[in-house]
Write a structure and sequence with these properties.
By secondary structure, the chain is mainly α. The chain has helices spanning 2-23, 26-40, 45-57, 105-113, 116-125, 130-142, 146-157, 169-183, 186-199, 202-218, 222-235, 241-252, 256-273, 278-289, 291-302, 307-318, 342-355, 375-384, 392-406, 413-432, 446-460, 465-478, 486-496, 500-507, 517-529, 533-546, 550-555, 575-591, 595-604, and strands spanning 328-330, 336-338. Helix 10 runs antiparallel to helix 11 (222-235). This is SEC-C domain-containing protein.
């Protein structure tokens, strides 16, 4: 019965709003309620008359600057406010409604209908109830009106009085952050996050902090992520969100053991306080037991429709038999080539009917479309046909898809990327077993295996750093032209592991004539750590000649993000190139005693 009432109420309220907009006068509206309105209520004239004054009183009027003209609710023995002439107790006061009418309903419907200058003026009036803004914004987003949703939700969060925000504002806040991200409003996104962290309600601060940290982690800016976490500790010292975020941060930094230790600390501390729900306490207990597995399970559960097929994929990869051999040949020049077999082509064709997205051959890690739009289909079909993974082109497409969605999450490496790496490495052993010649990108179908290797290096870089580096080194021995740009990645990983002599050795192999900022700065850091200061100073001069922005940006405690170019490529010598290196490696410079001070002294000189 309640569902029928809600449907009737919405139909009546929508008709009432259209009638009010024609004149915005109460007598004319009541005339509508007794005639057309009664029909909308299934012929129930008494209900129509009882609803009409309630809805009128909460309707914003354009002629009144978007304020309402509420009617004074009469006493039982006073004339009824529906203008029937009868006493209230014998008229609308005798009507029992199935449920209370929301006091923001007509504002919400108005925000749904208004467009252009009228909507803008209504929002700027500041009279819209927060709950109406919240619901209208979510409805606009659900119906694909992204710009309208942003406009309405911005009004919700631009209020001076944060206490007026409804407790259900959390999904609206996350939606607005996502809209800013999708539509390229990076400055607005940063300003909203800062404002919420500075003075927003407590229930939103944890969400804002989580999003801020995740944004920095997604861009590999571990230094900024750590700064955001420290800020959160100061603002929300007893928030359970801190345990979750610190575990993520430490796993991104490669400190798996410390992540478990800190999770146990948070569990003991918050359990003693006794303020947590049983579900929260169990999550912290699981986090303390195994941070990576817990975060992975949480991610899968959050995927809704994809949770089951992703879990099935994990099970499939865990039990996958060894990969079969490949057709590897040697050319007259001694180069090694992989050529796809007829069986592999057949398997790939069967897979592609469901995957439907092509690999971008002009991009190292690109796909021509979003495979996750139909992921439920291809995941289930792949689990039903595990033999498809005998085709390197299927493994390539799957790895690219997984890297695009999960490559920045270290806790997904054991269950998704490492089993696929087992498969690829068996194929790479087969290649090297055929000879010592180069395995070049442009030869035959070699790019399929090399591109898969790059995707796996990226996918494991955060969750299995050592294995990622070993795979990158193996790929470099096969493709000594470094078509994948793996030299810098190997260097960065060696520096993170404190293997400075090996890192320095990597920088001494110039694979092309174009200087790479990461190689130049990596060489400088390795030399500084090895106390070879004169050579380190010379390396910094090379850095300055290549990119004069690099040292100042690396030393700055805070600096504004710089947009990368097309395809997220930073041109050599630009601020974008300097910013990209800072996000990737500043944490290593900061962790090296005296390194940033040394850089600053070189700038001052």
């Amino acid at each position: 019965m309640l569902a029928v009432w809600v449907e009737q109420l919405l139909g009546f309220a929508s008709g009432a709003l259209a009638a009010i907009r024609e004149e915005e006068r109460y007598p004319a509206f009541m005339a509508w309620a007794r005639e057309e309105g009664a029909e909308l209520m299934g012929g129930d004239l008494a209900m129509a008359q009882a609803l009409a004054p309630i809805l009128w009183s909460q309707t914003p009027l354009e002629r009144a600057g978007f304020t309402c003209e509420p009617l004074a609710r009469p006493g039982r023995n006073e004339p009824c406010w529906c203008d029937s002439g009868r006493k209230t107790k014998h008229c609308c006061g005798a009507v029992a409604m199935p449920a209370e009418v929301p006091d923001h309903l007509m504002w919400m419907l108005s925000l749904r209908d208004w467009k252009g200058p009228t909507l803008k003026a209504a929002l700027e009036s500041g009279h819209a109830p927060a709950q109406a803004l919240l619901e209208a914004g979510l409805i606009a987003a659900e119906t694909g009106q992204r710009g309208r949703a942003q406009q309405i939700l911005e009004s919700l969060f631009q209020r001076a009085d944060w206490s007026r925000l409804p407790a259900q504002a959390e999904p609206a806040f996350e939606l607005l952050i996502d809209l800013y991200q999708e539509r390229g409003f990076t400055r607005k996104r940063a300003e909203l996050l800062d404002e919420v962290l500075d003075r927003g309600p407590l229930f939103l601060r944890g969400v804002a902090l989580e999003r801020l940290c995740l944004m920095h982690l997604d861009s590999d800016d571990l230094d900024s992520a750590r700064a955001a976490f420290v800020r959160a500790q100061q603002a929300l010292p007893d928030s359970p969100t801190l345990a979750y975020i610190e575990a993520m941060l430490l796993l991104h930094e490669g400190h798996e053991q410390e992540a478990a230790e800190r999770a146990r600390f948070w569990f003991r501390r918050l359990a003693r306080k006794g303020d947590l729900e049983p579900e929260q306490l169990q999550f912290l207990a699981d986090l303390a037991e195994n941070p990576g597995a817990t975060l992975a399970d949480q991610l899968l559960n959050a995927e809704e429709d994809l949770a089951e097929p992703l879990a099935s994929l994990q099970a499939l990869l865990a039990e996958l038999p060894p990969a079969p051999g490949l057709n590897i040949g040697e050319t007259e020049n001694g180069e090694l080539e992989y050529r796809s077999s007829a069986r592999e082509d057949t398997l790939f064709a069967a897979w592609q009917k469901h995957f439907q997205v092509d690999v971008d051959d002009d991009s190292a890690l690109g796909l021509k479309g979003d495979p996750w739009l139909q992921a439920g289909d291809w995941l289930r079909e792949l689990c039903a046909h595990p033999e498809w993974l005998d085709s390197p082109r299927v493994v390539q497409a799957l790895t690219l898809a997984l890297t695009s969605r999960f490559g920045s999450l270290p806790w997904m490496s054991p269950s998704l990327f490492e089993p696929l790496s087992d498969r690829l490495e068996r194929w790479l052993e087969r290649i090297r077993g055929e000879g010592e010649g180069p395995f070049l990108w442009d030869s035959a179908d070699n790019a399929v295996l090399l591109r898969t290797g790059l995707a796996l290096v990226v996918g494991m870089e955060r969750g299995a750093r050592e294995r990622s580096r070993r795979l990158a080194e193996r790929l470099l021995t096969l493709d000594d032209q470094d078509s994948l740009g793996l030299q810098e990645l190997v260097l960065d990983q060696l520096l993170r592991e404190g293997r400075d002599r090996e890192a320095l050795s990597v920088t001494e192999t110039q694979r092309d004539d174009t200087p790479v900022l990461g190689i130049l700065l990596g060489r400088a850091l390795a030399l500084f750590r090895l106390q070879r200061i004169d050579e380190a100073n010379e390396a910094l001069r090379d850095v300055h000649r290549h990119n004069p922005h690099a040292l100042p940006m690396l030393c700055a405690e805070q600096t504004r993000p710089v947009q990368l170019g097309p395809d997220n490529v930073a041109e050599p010598g630009t601020r974008a190139e300097a910013w990209q290196y800072r996000t990737l490696m500043r944490d290593q410079w900061r962790a090296t005693a005296g390194a940033l001070a040394w850089l600053q002294s070189q700038i001052d000189d």
